Amino acid sequence: MTLKATTPTRPDALSDRAPKTASQGLDLIGQRRGRAGLNRTSVLAAGVVLLFFASVLLGSYTVTIPDFFTIVANHLTGGAKIPGASFIVMENKLPRAVIGTMIGLAFGLAGALFQTMLRNPLASPDIIGISYGASAAAVVAIVIFGASGAAVSGAALGGALGVAALIYAISSGTGMRGAGRGNAAGNRLVLAGVGIAAALHAVVNFLMTRADIRTAADALVWLNGSLNSASWDRAAVLFLALAVLLPAVAVISGPLRLLELGDDTAAGLGIRVNPTRLALVVIAVTLAAVATAAAGPVSFVAFLAGPIARRFTRKASLPASALVGALIVLAADYFAANIAPLLLDGTALPVGVVTGALGAPFLLWLLVTNNRKDA
Amino acid sequence: MAVLNAKDLTLKYDQRCVVDGLSVEIPEGRVTMIVGANACGKSTLLRGLSRLLKPAGGTVTLDGKDIHTRPARELARTLGLLPQHPTAPDGITVRDLVGRGRYPHQGFFRSWSPQDDLAVQQALEATDTLELAGRNVDELSGGQRQRVWIAMALAQETDVLLLDEPTTYLDLAHQVEVLDLITDLNRRRGTTVAIVLHDLNLAARYADNVIAMKAGAVVAQGTPRDVVTEGLVRNVFNLESRVIPDPVSATPLIIPIGRHHVPTELELVS
Amino acid sequence: MNHGTTTAVSRPGTPGTTVPSPATGASGGAAAGRKRAAWLLAAVVVLVLLAATSLAVGARGLPLGTVLEAFTRFDPANGDHAVVHARIPRTVLGLLAGGALGLAGAAMQGVARNPLADPGIMGVNAGAALAVVTGIYVFGIASFSGYIWFAFLGAAVAAVVVYLIASLGRDGATPVKLALAGAALSAGLFSLMNVILVSSQDTLDRFRFWQVGGVAGRDWSVVLPGLPFLAVGAAIVLLTGRILNSLALGDDIARGLGQRVGLTRALTALGIVLLCGTATALAGPIGFVGLVIPHAVRFLTGPDYRWILPFSLVLAPVLLLGADIIGRVVLLPGEVPAGIMTALIGAPVFVWLVRRGKGAGL
Predict the structure, then answer these.
(1) DSSP designation for A328
(2) Which GO terms describe its biological process (chain B) (predicted)?
(3) Which of A171, A261, B215, C18 is the most buried (most CB within 10 A)?
């Protein structure tokens, strides 16, 4: 969570008085850092794989590893099913873990993209209103039209994209007053998003008072983000979306690194700032929107993934942020589905409640240590 | 009049020690320039001298009294300060901004007085910003804005004024203008001034007294003629140079020597 | 950019002998002051008219003459008079909560030097909400007057925690740190609240009506206990105008001007907590009033907090009462709570402010 200005710093040792040794030194440092970052990123990836299997195999219904492979192989080849276990693994645990991983990746990336682009740690999609667009549309669908399942997801996707477009339209456009003084367009984007989010929040609250209590309770579960309705259909749609979006992220990550240096510097390095920013917004918003449509606005994942990844790998890295996002969702869902019922007389929580309740203290801790350290 | 004194001053940011056991006196009624390489602790020293940073050890005294034990508002009537990057609220006018320098002269219930008006007026005149008084600060150029901030510090009417790099981001003409203005202030009001300045040549020209710092310690202090030498520049900036008398002011003028320009006998001016 | 007098060497007049020139001297400031005072008076008049309208408008509309009559010649047998009297508590609550939120919002933006500062962002609403949910779930509280103390306690604790976390470190409670800490704590508290709400439908059923925020359905037993807190909070905050003016120049300059930044900031924060904690306790979480009004007020007053504060005190109830009145008539025979209407009215205003480029800085 670097809150510092982004002026490029030049270590004193690198003045051209001793060019050879200095630049060699820089290369060495760069390589060493790069390698450490890569190692740590692979640690994260291993963690995701480990948690993925833990959530499929362990928990309130345990499956042995040989059984798991038998079940999956038989499912694919149409072989014999293990009574009970096959159903639970194939229809519940596996799709749940797959969707959890994918929305984690998507939220983590979306958050990191926004935070990097806007140079503002507050600027994750859940804070700047995009998730609220999804929520409001979903609650309207649930409460007013009695929708459920795929219809709610569709409404959420539409809501998120619509609100994102609205925010972008508000913040871009006329009279760039104050342009050149820092990051005016970015600030306007954050401000417009916060305003819209608050208004939509009020709408959601009002609709909650208008519904009968059972519908309101359903809507609340959705509002918190939940993997309970995970299914292969949903996983397939999500997979297709990510198959398009992840390569797009890879392509845009180069220009993004230059955009981090500030609009003017980036323009000087040959980036077309406004089209690049628009492309970034579209990609990041779509990532957040499809993830929200699949599982509801799982709070804090997008907000936290970037800062945690940066702490862990000691540099800003999109893959690391995505992996941290997946780690958070998988760990939180394991807790919500398997451990929370033991503590709360059998109530399984929506995963978003856990990411929020556990994520917030962690963020506070990040803030405390950060404030102490570099303040 | 006031004398600002630091004794065995140790300044830390958390655990990192920036200034260690430093003793220095800012002479009364003079213009003192604090110079040194990047990150040598000169801005930190200024923060320590101005009560922005509480010392981890040692004391800073103004007229013999510890600045940290004196009431803040009373101290602010004697000791003024202009940080490096002051922020102006959106839409504030020049006159309003300068007027806020009168804060230490107002009581909790005592509001604006004719005396405050006079001080603001004089500050605006002294900085040649009178015709800007009704303008918004956001609309001003860099040089004008810097003069307005100095006007705010002047309106505070202090005997001691500390400035952290008041010429950053200004072109050469504006740099000279700002330093002339500060010199005027010193000559007319006898204000004690301490300035952190990057430009060694301007420091040598405008200072009565130079404090050269390296790695959190004072390496030399005295008049520019005594202090600013080729040896000092080598020691403090790790830079080879020639020092000649400034043809305009006869103060030391530093001519840096890079790697690509080796002085020939002909070019040397003794 | 015009560099003005680039080459002119400044030639200051001798100190002590100059006289303020009439064109730019004190007279200009005084005239501006008179103009602002007139504006403030106009705002008060609008507020009084709106309060009268609030007594007249509703499912049973009454002419203003009847409203006046209900005060001057009260007739207990007259049904219209009884309706007017029944509308007094919600009108008073609208005035009080509106004023408190406006004042708190302005002071918060000043003390945090942050255009986003608002009871919602700074964790106050979340703290109050969690406390109310706990009150309902654990203690079975079921009335607005029962929620007050929980809401107040929750708001105060949340605000103090946010402030403490943000003020760790060398440079104290900077705007970014405050906003981050507030957002983080809010999200966490809402999640804890949702743990309860997801597992208890009864709690959700009661809580959702508090959560929308509004002034309807509150009687004197809700309004009166809040009065002393509001009075103390308003007194503190109204006196901080000059403090906020120096703080607006940045902590370093404020210190250089002799302000004890930590102390004054803590004092202002105390006033803010009293004001918006009480307002939230009385009326539920009402968004946008504290956020939008100070921004709008700056158009009239400029950046001088000695004027921003009183203007916010008067204009914020105009928004809240106006929202309540409109909410009573748009969905007849039902009502839209004031908290929803302020959001629906406030959001476009806020968006407009953002587009004008206001608030992009500090």
Answers:
(1) H
(2) iron ion transport
(3) A171
Distance of CA C279 to the CA centre of its chain: 8
Q: Is residue A113 part of a domain?
A: yes
Contact assignment for C252 to B81 by CB distance below 8 Å:
yes
pLDDT value, residue B252: 92
Tokens representing A50? 């480990």
CA A174/CA C201 separation, integer angstroms: 48
| Of residues A12, A17, A372, nearest to B38 (C-beta) | A12
Extract the residue ranges of chain C whose pLDDT is less than 70. 1-30, 115-116, 121, 169-176, 179, 356-362
pLDDT digit string, tens, across residues A187-220: 677 777 777 887 888 888 888 888 888 888 888 8
At A93-110, the pLDDT tens digits run: 888 899 999 999 999 999
How many Cα neighbours within 13 Å face the side chain of A345? Answer: 5
The residues in B 126-145 lying below 8 A from C, measured between CB atoms, are: 126-128, 130-134, 141, 143-144
CA angle C311, C314, C320 (to 5 degrees): 125
What SS3 class is residue B59?
strand
CA angle A18, A19, A24 (to 5 degrees): 110
Nearest to C187 among A121, A350, A356 (CB): A356
Distance CA B137, CA B139 (A): 5
Q: What is the CATH number of the domain that holds A148?
A: 1.10.3470.10
Neighbouring CB atoms inside 10 A of C15's CB total: 17
pLDDT computed for residue A245 by the predictor: 92
Mutate which of A10, A17, A177, A188 to test chain B, going by most B C-beta atoms within 10 A? A17
**Residue partners of C322: CB distance under 8 A and separation at least 6:** C50, C345
Cβ contact (<8 Å) for A372 and B259?
no
Decide if C212 and A224 are in contact by the 8 Å CB cutoff.
no
Here the tokens at position B166 are 């008041």
pLDDT digits (tens, 9 = 90+) for B236-256: 988 889 899 999 988 999 999
Tell me the residue range of the domain where A114 lies.
Answer: 37-374
Strands B79-82 and B65-66: unpaired
Whole-prediction pTM value? 0.75
Q: What does the H/E/C string look like for chain C? A: CCCCCCCCCCCCCCCCCCCCCCCCCHHHHHHHHHHHHHHHHHHHHHHHHHHHHHHHCCCCCCCHHHHHHHHHCCCCCCHHHHHHHHHHHHHHHHHHHHHHHHHHHHHHHHHHCCCCCCCCCCCHHHHHHHHHHHHHHHHCCCCHHHHHHHHHHHHHHHHHHHHHHHHCCCCCCCHHHHHHHHHHHHHHHHHHHHHHHHHCHHHHHHHHHHHCCCCCCCCHHHHHHHHHHHHHHHHHHHCCHHHHHHHCCCHHHHHHCCCCHHHHHHHHHHHHHHHHHHHHHHHCCCCCHHHHHHHHHHHHHCCCHHHHHHHHHHHHHHHHHHHHHHHHHHCCCCCCCHHHHHHHHHHHHHHHHHHCCCCCCC
When divided into structural domains, chain A yields a total of: 1
Rounded-to-integer distance, Cα B90 and Cα B88, Å: 6
Residue A347 lies in a domain: yes
Name which residue leads in pLDDT, A128 or B34.
B34
Q: Where exactly are the structural domains of chain C?
A: 93-355
Say yes or no for a CB contact (<8 Å) between C183 and A122: yes
Contact in structure between C260 and B72 (CB atoms under 8 Å)? yes
Q: Is A286 within the bounds of a domain?
A: yes
Query: What domains lie within chain B, and their CATH numbers?
Result: 1-78+158-224 (3.40.50.300), 87-156 (no CATH)
Most confident range (mean pLDDT) of A40-44, B169-173, C47-51 is C47-51
Question: Which stretches within A146-226 are classed as H helix?
Answer: 150-171, 184-210, 213-224
CATH 1.10.510.40 is held by the domain C93-355 = no
Query: For residue A23, is it within any domain?
Result: no
